[in-house]
Each structure stands twice: as C-alpha cells, then as structure tokens.
Please model this.
Amino acid sequence: MGLGRTDIWRTGIINAPMAQVLRDGVGAHPVTWIDNPGPFRFIADPFGIWQDGRLYVFAEAYDYRVKIGRIDVFVFDRALTLVEHCPVLVEPWHLSYPVIVRDTDGTLYMMPESGRSGQQNLYRATDFPYRWERVPEFSFPGAAVDASPIFHDGRWWMFHAPWGQSATDRISLLHVAWADRLMGPWHPHPGNPVRRDIRSTRPGGTPIVTEDGLVLPTQDCAHTYGGAITPLHVTTLTPQHFEARAGAPLHAPATFAPFNDGMHTLSAAGSAAGDVTLFDAKHTDPSIVGRALVELDRLVLRRLWRQGTGG
Model:
C-alpha cells in the first residue's frame, strides 16, 4: 500500500482445472466469490485442498488497521456453498500465502510466508483444518517470499523470491532451491537468482505440470504490485541448470469491476470429482480519504486496547 492508496483484494473460486484457466483466462468461467469481512479488510492468497468431499480454502485475512495477516479457512461443500469459516493460524508476525503441501507419505502441511519471523516455517496439521504446529526439523536456509514447492522428477523444488534484499528484488528476482525430502536439507540453486524480470519472477500460486510441462504462476509487477499473473514455463530444471520462458499474462477482466486492477495468486485444488482454481483480484482506492479512515480506525482500536488493559 502506498501513500493515499489502499489495495483491497477479493478471492474467487473457478470450477475448472488450473491448466484450463491458464488457456482460457479467468474471465471465461463463472466465479464463486468469497465475501470480504468488512471495511479496510480483505481475503487474499488462496490455496486449497479437497478432503472428504469438502473444499478447504486457506487464505490470508488482512486488516489494514492492525497491519498483520493471519490465516483463515473457508470450507465449501461440493456445490461450492460456504459451510464454515474460522481463523486457523495466528502468529506474532505477519502471515500470508498459505501453501498447502501433501508430502509423499500423505501428511498435510502448510507453508505460509513468514518472512518477518526471520525464517521460512512449515506447519503440520494436528487437527485438520483447525490446528497446525510448527515443524522444528524443517530445514530451509533463511526466510523466503511466497515460497512455492512442488515434488517433480523425484525431488522437491522450491520457487521463491528473496526476503533479505530490497523491496525491488522481492518483485523482480526468482530463486530456486531443491531437496530430496520436504524436511530438507534444502540446497540453493547455484544460479540464483535464476531469473531477473519484474514481469515474471515473484511466485503467484501453485506450480503445476501440464501437457506443456512445468508451469509456475508469477506476478507481473511492472505497473503495479500484483498487476497480473504471468505463467512461467520452466523448460530446464536441474540442480545445476534453469531455463524458462514467460507466457502471456492473465489479467482480471472488466466483469470483475471494481476488482479488476490486478491479480497476484492463481492456485489449484484437485480431487477425484474434479478440479477447481482459486485466485484473487484487487481494487485500488487511490483516494487519500481511504488512507485517513484506516489511520483513524487504528487510533480508535489502539485507544480501546489501552483502556481494556489499563495501559
């Protein structure tokens, strides 16, 4: 969010496989929308999984008044009717981008962005979908931005942007790491950053394997943060070499108005009964009024908190 500008994201579900959405565009299919929780708050970065006939969508729940994200779950039945919604992961630091990972032994994990903690964390489901515990044996070298793992060709790969560098690097550099096991140890690719391009490097969803090969959704941030989704077609991926080419960007269509100012997540959730695609799209409020109201709400919340604690 820049001075006087507020980005509000909205999350949607498309009842079609992600490979088809990449071909057709997000505007070619009907959308089931998840409502935002109120003014100055939004739901973004959706990732999902089908379990026992229900779709579980995990997403960042963000409030501009506190400026910290948590992870919520939204539970849908087969007809994509919302049946439950609740918070499932809260930390002292900001959380977003809650990638759901199923290990090769079937265990479910969540790998949210947690860069402000100083490291990349992994959480194991202890009571799915409500309780998650941090996995101390997970070994990843430092913090990462929008880490996007996939098990491919017999090993684990992690695409991510660098955390400990400049804000520009976080939207214009792509790093890769690999491991034989999800727990690690993880090895940074010797070519890092393997790609430099503000239009097609920062990960923006789940990597998938299509008939055309491995595809990583990335963010096009050339004109605005999260301006569009650019499919990055990975043509060479080994522990020593990396090559990729960018496809045509996917833009939020005019029919999404006012949420047609950008997109920055596209992810897949599959099941035996059919695949769905999750995405988010944004509306940008350019007025100084919106920023002023956010700051006013923050002052009111802080005053109420101090009164409640005697501080």
